[in-house]
Amino acid sequence: MAEYKKPTTEQEFEVNFAQKKPLMNPTQAYYESSRCLFCYDAPCMNACPTHIDIPLFIKQIHTGNTVGAAKTIFDANWLGNACGVVCPTGELCEGACVYDGQDVPVIQIGRLQNYATSHAMKADVTLFKAGADNGKKVAIVGAGPAGIACACELRVLGYEVDIFEAKDKPSGLTVYGIAPYKITNQEVLDEMDYLEKQLNYKVHYNHPITTAEQVADIEAKYDAVFLGVGIGATARLGLAGENKEGVIGAVEFIEDLRMKHHEVDVPPRVVVIGGGNTAMDAASESAKMGAKSVTLAYRRDRESMGAYGFEYKFAIATGVQSLFNATPVEIVGNGRATGVKFAKTEVRDGKLQNIPDSEFVVNCDLVIKATGQGKQATFFNLIKGLELDDRKRLKVNLENYQTTNPKYFAGGDAVNGGAEVVNAAYEGKMAAQGIDAWLNGK
Amino acid sequence: MPNLNINFAGIKSPNPFWLASAPPTNSGYQVMKAFEAGWGGAVWKTLGVPVINVSSRYGSTNYRNTRMAGFNNIELITDRPLIDNLKEIEEVKKYFPDHAIIASLMVESKAEWEQIIKDVENAGADGIELNFGCPHGMCERGMGSAVGQEPDVLETIVGWAKEAATIPVITKLTPNISHIIDPGLAAVRGGTDAISLINTIKSIVGIDLDTYAPYPVVDGKGTNGGYCGPAVKPIALEMTKELAKHPDIRTTPISGIGGIETWRDVVEFILLGASSVQVCTAVMHYGFGIVREMEQGLVQFMNDKGYETIYDFVGKALPNVTEWKHLNLKHKVVAKINADKCIGCDLCYIACDDGAHQAIALPKNGSRIPEIIDENCVGCNLCSLVCPVEECITMEKRDDGTQHVTWDEKTQAGTIPTTFNDDRAGGKGHYVPKPTDALKV
């Protein structure tokens, strides 16, 4: 392994994290857009959670109406620019492209989408404006993709919107949690600026909502509240030695990486525990940060992994080694993690069980836990009448994203348990329409 | 190896591939390069009266990612001195005595025609082509298409040329007329040895949406150009066929021109009666090298079909080009979708439902593989034309071939429908949805 030199400068970081879906140039966009068949009832459009009129925007790009294409995209998805490059398009729109049926390369829909929106953003074209003030106010907790999408939609409908964000940047995991080779911080924040400039919602940064008093205050001042609070920090595994130095949650690791880039010191040997997309990201990122050996450990077999196949392949391509059917039982080391003790597993009687006397240690300098995030149950307890499902997700009516407390609406990871940016963007938008309908007795 | 030699109205050429009179034949350098590349003949860029050309001369119709699917120009005849052109013709002929050089000419008075014909004959030209086609610029001065549009004038000038010339005379026709037979007959009456067609079609290829001027834009203004390139081939084929079928013209050799780029185009023109072809736009797009594809493909075709010379198949498709009234009304084809090949774009469905005869349905089970409603299918071909997959939708013959009746026969037998309610009327029993069904979709 060691395909990647440890980055010591921003330039070296950019080389290691070269964009997987770089911005198309006009010639690329021209030829790629010319290939679209303009399918009837297009499968790509139906595969997009936000139902962007993909054949239309591709045709618009091809006819030189790139701004119109951007409008078509943003009309359906307020985070249309980021989604073009961060969406798992092979699983969504591009996965549905009919060309695949004859083994013709599918249309690069994501990159075309990103091309059109980037064009509008760079040209600073005003595509939207806030609707006439309707005198009503909505508070949004969390400036992630769900919250931002909800805010944009509400502003178009004429609501005054205040967003309360615990951190100092908008877009949530889009800037804090997406693998850096998918999108740069700058590009994420450019889209946020672009939207905020046109729609003038107010974001109160570094303003976490943590107390009942704050909740009461919001309830008193606003006509409705949207919760786009996502999910919490990496959950504890309950392993012996988990508190040792050198053990970090994947979400925290990735956030640190996104904010500090080459300044993050990833040691030579890394073990990543988990089998989801976040585990794949943490593993490939460790490799791209110059780790000499990265082991991706998952307690079941490869087929059972939650990660998309393409994400696993990407991680392997960066030099990551995988270890299947192994579950961690202890973090070893004296004060500082020096390895992970695993037990081999097998499925017996339909249940995953450890094989007795099968323990072994993988030595490492850093353990990254990508084993799921904690839920926001403590926060939800501050609000009366909120019900959670058995997986600690906020229950909502999927027609309007209203929670069991009628004044509260919700969307994004807090509701879906952790999905894509595009899902959050869709749910935030739908919730805004739900709020509008509810406040107007529709 | 088939023999590609032609003897076109007395002009000998090692193959039927000629460069049309146009920018690619503007100089001896280009013509020599073309002959080196494999072209058999060249019609020199039109020599004639002194002109001045404008800057910004060509415009293009791009279709999707295809550049120059159609092409237009407002360039005039050669603006190089006549003496230079004559010297270069002479020089090229020295190097390529067996290749054909035809001098395209355009002048006004009888004396001028006599003089310039003498000049090009002295230079060694193998033939003359009378340019009665240019639809821009020169026509404003009474030449080019202005002549081609006036059969009597055309006939007179062909007569002058024939009187003066000792080498074969080809008359090049403009398509900017309502009936190609009229100038065709006039050329024959004037004594022409051969006909070439089509010259370019009067056109505006587009408008600049900022300056509101047509392309090509010359300092904020534009003018109609002459249209050519792949887009005009169907028109050229039709006009070639018209002349080749006409009893008074069909013995006159035809040089086919219009959108020719590949061996298939060449073969099609020959099948409709041409015995040489002329190419311009394809060379302006890809250079002289495209001739190797044309030649290789033509040889392959001739080998496959067992033809030894071009003349074995000149006009071979003409008997099958008839009038509508002679088509068999009993012939029936119905579309068939190969489900294994279908990729589910459903373009056939929407094309048929919105653009044709509502004979394709989408399955209720959510499958995207459409189904042909046999009883509604009129066999129009549209679905098979829009289908992006090779050989996925085919048109299957459904009649047993035993019956044959044409409109002409029915007319003679007195069995044609005479009112719309006549049971013999074609569309009377044909299914169409109710207008309000549109609202349910």
TL;DR?
Chain A has 442 residues and is of the alpha/beta class.
Any descriptors?
heterodimer; A: Fumarate Reductase Iron-sulfur Protein, Chain B, domain 2; FAD/NAD(P)-binding domain; five-stranded parallel β-sheet; 18 helices; B: 441 residues; Alpha-Beta Plaits; 14 helices
Give an account of the 3D structure.
The longest helix of chain A has 19 residues, at 421-439. The radius of gyration of chain A is 23 Å and the shape is globular. Chain A has helices at 10-16, 26-34, 43-47, 54-62, 66-76, 80-86, 93-96, 109-122, 145-156, 173-176, 185-199, 212-221, 250-260, 277-288, 309-317, 377-380, 413-416, 421-439; strands at residues 137-141, 160-164, 202-204, 224-227, 247-249, 269-273, 293-297, 321-323, 326-332, 339-348, 351-354, 360-363, 366-369, 396-397, 402-403, 408-410. In chain A, helix 9 packs parallel to helix 18, helix 13 (250-260) packs across helix 14 (277-288) and helix 14 (277-288) runs parallel beside helix 15 (309-317). In chain A, the strands form 4 sheets. Chain A has a 5-stranded parallel beta sheet with strand order 3-2-1-4-16, with helices on both faces. In chain A, strands 5-13-6-7-8 form a 5-stranded parallel beta sheet. In chain A, strands 9, 10, 11 and 12 form a 4-stranded antiparallel beta sheet that branches. Chain A contains 18 helices and 16 strands. Chain B is α/β, with parallel strands linked by helices. Chain B folds into 2 domains: 6-320, Alpha-Beta Barrel (TIM Barrel), CATH 3.20.20.70; 324-435, Alpha-Beta Plaits. Chain B is built from 14 helices and 18 strands. Chain B has helices at residues 28-37, 82-95, 110-123, 145-148, 151-164, 181-190, 233-245, 263-271, 281-286, 291-305, 347-355, 382-386, 407-413, 437-440; strands at residues 6-8, 11-13, 17-19, 41-48, 58-63, 66-73, 100-106, 127-131, 169-172, 194-197, 201-203, 225-228, 254-257, 274-279, 333-337, 360-361, 371-372, 393-397. In chain B, helix 2 runs parallel beside helix 3 (110-123), helix 5 (151-164) packs parallel to helix 6 (181-190) and helix 8 packs across helix 10 (291-305). Chain B is globular and about 75 Å long. The mean pLDDT of chain B is 96. Chain A binds chain B through residues 30-31, 34-35, 37-41, 43, 62, 98-102, and chain B through 64-65, 341-347, 349-350, 368, 388-389.
